[in-house]
Amino acid sequence: MKKLLTLLSVVLLFVAVPSSAEPSLDSLFDRADKARTSNPSELQILLKQISKHKLTENQQQYYYYLLGSQTQVIGDHDEAIRLYQQALITGNSVDLQYRTLLLLSNVMTVKQNMTAAFSYLFQASELVDKVSNPELKPSVKVQAIITYMTLKLYQETIDTSQELLDTGVQGLSRCNALFYNNYSTQELTPEKIELSQIQNGINYCKSHNLPIMALYGQVLVAKYHLFHKEFEKAESVLNFHKRAAEDIGPVHLVGHYYVTLSQAQYFLNDTVTASKTLDNFFKIKNISFSSEPMVNGLKLKAEIEEKLGNTSTALKFYKQYIEADKIFKNTISLQQTAYNLAKNEIINKNQQIALLEKSNTLLTLENELATVENDNKKLFITLLLTILMVLGYFAFRAFRNTRIYRKIAENDSLVGISNRYYFTKVVALLLSSSKTTSQTDAFIIFDLDWFKQVNDLYGHLTGDWVLKAVVSHCRQFVRNVDIFGRIGGEEFAIFLPACTAEKAALLAEILRDAIEEIDCNGSGYPIKITASFGVTCSDRSGYELRQLFRDADIALYLSKNQGRNKVTLFEPTQQKESATAVL
């Protein structure tokens, strides 16, 4: 009898175990979707389990969406794009199409392809009314906020995120809105943001199981301490959360942790540790050479090596920084231009629609008036003339706006001189013309010394005041035929047609002295501004704009390396010396 009972227990055990071990496919998808923004490792395990099942078309669409999200987190953006596009042509779930379009817009923003990012964002916005889940609808505004922030349009980011917060939105959308509102406020006016404001955003994201966004928030906490010169606190915060960021964070987040941590260590005069931290940062895979963390990391590495007395290594990293910074700033400039052009195109299309509506109104009136007696002909003619005048007015207004928008696209919105896109376009044409006649043209690049400290200590609004003051003072000495442009944050260039190198160097010296004499009391802070200059000309560097930029940059670096607030005229031997130093 005992043997029979034992055998029966074993049989029941084997029958009962399988029934509770297999989770349903819907449960796997639900858990994977939640892990997407909280636990990438768990997401990877769940996706492997899902792949073993036979999936319907809509489930296959869901699988591609989740697999693309996991691939994006590890930084393989091209593969993520392929998976998202596969999700768009598989299945017919409108909610998944909407979510996929938003993630495509997001990854295109990260890849700095703003034309594609806007295209996917507009497609997603057209699906909002068809989305069945009301919690998903605010996501399109969240992606617009991310796009604004990527373009460094901080005020637009603050305004849009505050609008979203005022609607009472909850969950992931509120977490994102809180973070980007705090981030942009800190970038625009770092002296006004409170630590408690940043911490509230972090706590909200944590309470809704959104650890990645909470970790991004800790970077803001560290930057807050850096701004207030609490360097040890900044280092402590980043060291405490760095392991978590490495375990679950995307490469962009990990990059911010390493670079911000190295800044704190540098300010604590621990240059050796700061250098090692940056070395670990440079080993990160899939991080873009022209990303903001990489640009800041290369610049800091050059400064550390210069402080340690490693001149050749400092020069190598400074050259890498110049290349990455130019790509980064040029991309931002082109993106902002594309944004303004897209925005203006929408305005023009709306005006065209208004004109068409008025034309349709005119046709309707003509049909109605055709039935009226001859006695009403005078009234009809008067009305027709009035409408034609209105149409003429709107046509003139559209033409005038087009000219205004073109000017906006060609000029820097802050300081009112040529932006990088228009500067390079015009100078390239002028150089081509000068080459045919062998005319000597000169080229000046100058960079404001220690300008980043002005932004860090006094805020971006003070930095903007300084940039405007510099341009205002320099304009007094630049000829009408010269092309004066802002080619980066604090970097400017002047192209001087029919001008020798010696005369250009003299002008650079005049500008250097004018900048040094600027009275900055109007900014509200006791700031001292200086600039370093690099000068070259076509009979030394040729007629290729890229070579002129490169040689002037070498001269500019020498000015900075020799103590800043100097003018250096490029000599061909400098190129050989710098190449030897790198080798």
UniProtKB/TrEMBL annotation:
It catalyses: 2 GTP = 3',3'-c-di-GMP + 2 diphosphate. NCBIfam families: GGDEF. Its EC number is 2.7.7.65. PROSITE patterns: GGDEF. The chain crosses the membrane at residues 379-399. Residues 439-572 form the GGDEF domain. Keywords: Coiled coil, Membrane, Signal, Transmembrane, Transmembrane helix. InterPro entries: Diguanylate_Cyclase, GGDEF_dom, Nucleotide_cyclase, Rev_trsase/Diguanyl_cyclase, TPR-like_helical_dom_sf. Residues 339-382 form a coiled coil. One of its GO terms (molecular function) is diguanylate cyclase activity. It comes from the Bacteria. Its cofactor is Mg(2+). PANTHER family: DIGUANYLATE CYCLASE DGCM-RELATED, REGULATORY COMPONENTS OF SENSORY TRANSDUCTION SYSTEM. Residues 1-21 form the signal peptide. It holds the Pfam family GGDEF. It comes from Rheinheimera riviphila. Gene3D superfamilies: 3.30.70.270, Tetratricopeptide repeat domain (1.25.40.10). This is diguanylate cyclase.
